[in-house]
Write a structure and sequence with these properties.
Length: 694
């Protein structure tokens, strides 16, 4: 079996969080997360209904492996990697309750305590009222169970109707100007000093961990303001919950000077629920961060009936919201207008040509009179594969395949498929595992293969030899690439210059992409020994380009120009023309709009039509495999410009992962229907051979 050196420990600067995907009842993709993916914590599981648009870093105490509870939660629709619903109106409390049920079902939770903060209190109480069999207790931090906007601006002593009118109308105004304000918000210099100023503004009191609070705010500001305030307005329609339906142990923890949730309203709600507990602390809406020990002790000890442990929740915090939260109720979410619904079953409109700036709408549709011939599937090479990911041709025409989740390395020779080895050191976890493979340009003499894989501590690039029977020992050549459940990149290819190129993802931490010292969110260029290639931007770094979110496709055209396909977040997937030391803008920009400071993509797609992975070049065209879009895209390239994207096989074969050009000019395409995000057919996954019709 292939051997691998023991990895060095990785130093982490923040609590760990593990992301995974959940599909809600209406098909919306949710980015869920947990502090305990392996279920090693000896304690109960708690469902966290977070503030509107807030992220895991607002509750760092719950991310501590010693906190005593396993936490499962999710990012609200259209924020933090969660998709937007097909129907934009399905973005209020009713939808959040459905999302909570989906997250519980995925986690195997039949019944659990629910912790709600801010607007999450609305979700928690509505969940308990509609599904009492699923909720064993409620911990309500700084939130009222319904009609939240009427409870804001308490220190001004406004009548409830007036408070609601002010906050709702202000939210409407900011929503209308959100597209203009978002670029300004994303450039705000948020650091500990800014948190210090905010902590003395009266809106928030001093917090226990200013650097972590700054990180949480920066994550919050990646959501476009217009979408966030759309969410806020949808939640503003949620009326008061019928508290007579609440029969589980309940505890309220209120902040005396809370601008966003009137403590008197929380006290009144507590009085109407038999046996509930109410505690008021000298703090703001962010009291769990300001007074972590006291606030969490009150919550857990008052609700012993719903759980038999009192976890140590050091700094069980809640930050975020920032300026947007002043008007909308304790959370924040922002995005554009892209649809993140399940993939459509066919092309939706004629292709659009990319000009000097990328198209703002997805390009799709059938061929026109001037386009090349129609591609067609000519045969199926093999079936029954499990999440095939990497594919590379050997000089003799044989093909090496990697399976992400099994760690198997397969060889296809003619019609024969054999397993040549299993790389046990690869650790599969959602998008992580055994990913890309590349063949040495000198394979005929050195028999060397290169693999990109995820271990317990990092992503890394290794090389080994293949003697016709099995793999030799694995030799790490690049280690320490940050890894995560999602956004691991993984593509490998040799360029015409003889150097190895690799794509990495941001490892679910967007700060990595703009950090020149991090290998995450980059395209790397190296010698076959893993050293920085001559001519790199920095002689001591393998980084070639930066500011990427998650590149999974690399291809060189006939001129030697490198192209890359890149997953977007909520609005736009991208096709990028890669140049030395260029910054492609993530997380500051998604799609176009970043020039001149950042390099704009050549073509963009809405995320439901692409979610691109593999990329290949053939006779004047780029071919891009799409996962969520369930199609193969052909893109014309002329004079260094990409245009006229046309989609093929829409929905015919499901998710498409990898596309490579065979020695005979045909395309080999792998499906990815057994990767946990589709309903595989009996013969999935498969490899198709496609005549490109050039």
């Amino acid at each position: 079996m292939a051997a691998l050196a023991t990895p060095e420990p990785t130093t982490r600067t923040r609590p760990e969080v593990f992301f995974y995907d959940v599909i809600s009842a209406d098909g919306t993709l949710l980015r869920a997360w947990t502090n305990d993916p392996d279920m090693r914590i000896d304690g109960p599981t708690v469902l966290l209904c977070n503030g509107l648009g807030t992220n895991p870093w607002t509750t760092p105490g719950l991310l501590d492996k010693d906190c005593g509870v396993r936490v499962v939660s999710w990012n609200h629709r259209g924020t933090g990697g969660s998709g937007r619903p097909v129907d934009a109106e399905r973005a209020g409390i009713d939808a959040f309750v459905e999302d909570a049920i989906a997250v519980m079902d995925q986690a195997g939770l039949k019944r659990s305590p629910v912790l709600g903060w801010s607007i999450g209190v609305n979700t928690a109480f509505e969940l308990a009222a509609r599904h009492p069999e699923r909720v064993s207790g409620i911990f309500a931090f700084a939130g009222v169970p319904g009609d939240t906007f009427s409870s804001m601006l308490a220190p001004l002593h406004l009548p409830r109707p007036l408070a609601r009118a002010v906050t709702v109308n202000l939210s409407r105004a900011i929503k209308l100007t959100g597209k203009v304000l978002t670029p300004v918000a994303t450039r705000l210099p948020i650091g500990p000093k800014a948190i210090g100023l905010l902590s003395h503004s009266g809106f928030m009191l001093p917090v226990a961990d200013a650097p972590l609070a700054a990180h949480a705010v920066r994550e919050f500001l990646t959501t476009p303001l217009d979408w966030y305030f759309h969410l806020a307005l949808r939640t503003s329609t949620h009326g008061r919950v019928s508290l007579s339906k609440i029969s589980v142990p309940t505890a309220f923890v209120a902040g005396k000077w809370d601008l966003l949730a009137r403590s008197r309203d929380m006290a009144t709600a507590a009085e109407r629920i038999d046996g509930s507990t109410y505690v008021e602390l000298p703090g703001s809406h962010f009291l769990a961060m300001e007074r972590p020990e006291e606030s969490t002790r009150c919550c857990w000890s008052s609700s012993r009936e719903s759980t038999d442990v009192k976890p140590r929740l050091a700094r069980s915090a809640v930050v975020l919201l920032l300026a947007a939260s002043l008007t909308s109720c304790g959370g924040s979410d922002e995005l554009g207008d892209s649809d993140t619904s399940p993939a459509p079953t066919g092309p939706t409109r004629p292709a659009e040509t990319a000009s000097s700036t990328p198209s703002r709408t997805p390009t799709s549709g059938g061929p026109n009179a001037s386009s090349p011939g129609r591609p067609r599937v000519v045969r199926t090479v093999t079936t029954g594969l499990t999440s095939p990911w990497g594919l590379a041709f050997l000089p003799d025409g044989d093909v090496v395949i990697t399976e992400r989740d099994t760690g198997r390395v397969l060889l296809i020779s003619g019609k024969q498929v054999t397993e040549i080895d299993t790389i046990d050191e690869s650790v599969p976890a959602n998008e992580a595992g055994l990913l890309g493979v590349a063949v040495s340009p000198d394979f005929s003499s050195d028999s060397t293969l290169f693999f990109y894989l995820s271990t317990d501590s990092d992503n890394r690039i290794v090389r080994t030899t293949y003697d016709g029977n099995g793999l030799g020992d694995l030799e790490p050549i690049v280690t320490g690439i940050p890894n995560a459940y999602n956004h691991d990149g993984g593509r490998l290819t040799f360029g015409p210059d003889g150097y190895l190129y690799a794509s990495t993802g941001d490892a679910s931490d967007s700060d990595n992409s703009q950090d020149r010292s991090s290998l995450a969110g980059k395209i790397l260029r190296m010698t076959p020994d893993g050293e920085p290639a001559p001519g790199n931007p920095s002689s001591d770094s393998v980084v070639w380009s930066w500011g990427h979110r998650n590149v999974q496709g690399l291809a060189f055209d006939d001129t030697g120009q490198l192209w890359a396909s890149e997953f977007g977040d909520q609005d736009f997937d991208e096709l990028n023309k890669i140049t030395k030391d260029a910054n492609y803008g993530w997380p500051i920009h998604e799609g176009d709009g970043g020039a001149p400071d950042y390099t704009d993509p050549q073509i963009v797609w809405s995320t439901d039509q692409a979610s691109p992975s593999g990329l290949a070049w053939s006779d004047g065209h780029l071919w891009m495999a799409s996962l969520r879009g369930e199609r193969l895209w052909r893109v014309d390239v002329k004079n260094g410009r990409a245009s006229n994207a046309t989609d093929w096989f829409v929905g015919d074969y499901g998710r498409m992962r990898t596309v490579e050009v065979a020695p005979d000019g045909k395309l080999w395409v792998t499906t990815s229907n057994t990767d946990g995000r589709a309903d595989p057919k009996p013969d999935d996954d498969r490899i198709l051979v496609i005549d490109p019709g050039n």
